[in-house]
Prior knowledge:
Elements: H1 4-13, E1 23-27, E2 30-33, E3 40-44, E4 47-48, H2 63-79, E5 84-87, H3 97-107, E6 110-112, E7 114-115, H4 129-132, H5 135-148, E8 159-164, H6 171-187, E9 191-195, H7 198-210, E10 218-221, H8 230-238, E11 241-244, H9 252-264, E12 271-273, E13 280-281, H10 295-306, H11 311-326, E14 328-329
Parallel strand pairs: 3-5, 4-13, 5-6, 7-8, 8-9, 9-10, 10-11, 11-12
Antiparallel strand pairs: 1-2, 1-14
Amino acid sequence: MSGRPVIFLLIVCLNIHCHHSNESVITVTGPISEKNVGIALPHEHVIVDFIGADFITAGRYDADSVFHKALPFLNDLKKQHCTTLFDCTPNYLGRDVKLLAQLSKASGIRIVTNTGYYGAVKHKYLPKHTATESASQIAERWIKEFNEGIDGTDIKPGFIKLSADNGPLSSLQKKMIEAGAITHLETGLTVAVHSGDGNAAREELNILMQHKVPAHSFIWVHAQNEKDRSYFSEAAGKGAWVEFDGLSSENVQEYVSLLKFMKQNNLLHRTLVSHDAGYYSVGEPNGGQFRSYTTLFTHLIPALEAEGFTKEEIEQLIIKNPAKAYSIPG
């Protein structure tokens, strides 16, 4: 089954549904207008290194090997008419912005990278300075990446990626969210937070809103892990983005169910969907098992059509919402 017919229809619609021209999304090859984001995957990975912040070094992998492993998967994605991919690998977990820029240029897929740190897994991926620095000092590091570029390049982050375990948040995880709030207020970047459960997401959103960050600048990452769907209504009802991002060929019907729930509750306009796929895993032979980015197009869209989702509703999920979620004032 192919999602190709509906994709072609969506391409035709792209120029009809324009957003405010002063909103932009920052890719690794420069900013683009929100209306030019096109069909987008809001949560994927190209490379990840799980060794931990204390041990991570640039020399742990060969960038050319990663490039050759990842490029065919991005080329396959391009064939599905997807134009933008948000890479959610943060610093100290394998972020490599030069590699992302090379892959973007080679594949024609726009790639967006991030600033921020990953606080889940009991702080394994947090650098030592986070224990002693204030939220403001940590935020200064992230703001500097936004203003000056990442790792000596002119590549700038397009969002803030944070992470926490199940609620209640640890004091260090709370500090990361506070640093994210400070960074948002200075840069306008959206705050996307890997959240262990609904309680964590609720706490994260509360902290951000206490710091005057609007709910629409928060993405609840991995919402599918929370089985109590009332949390989805609560977060989206406040204006936050609820992201179901573990789509695979094995769980398509679960994702149809989640998206039907959001549709029935008039919350489709606050919903994001992606695979959390890829990726070259540093330290595994040949980078391990790389998972395709195309299930949304080959499996999910046909399944949604079969359930009566309209072209406009599918367009909302894969074109309008990602662009709106990640756009910042121009």
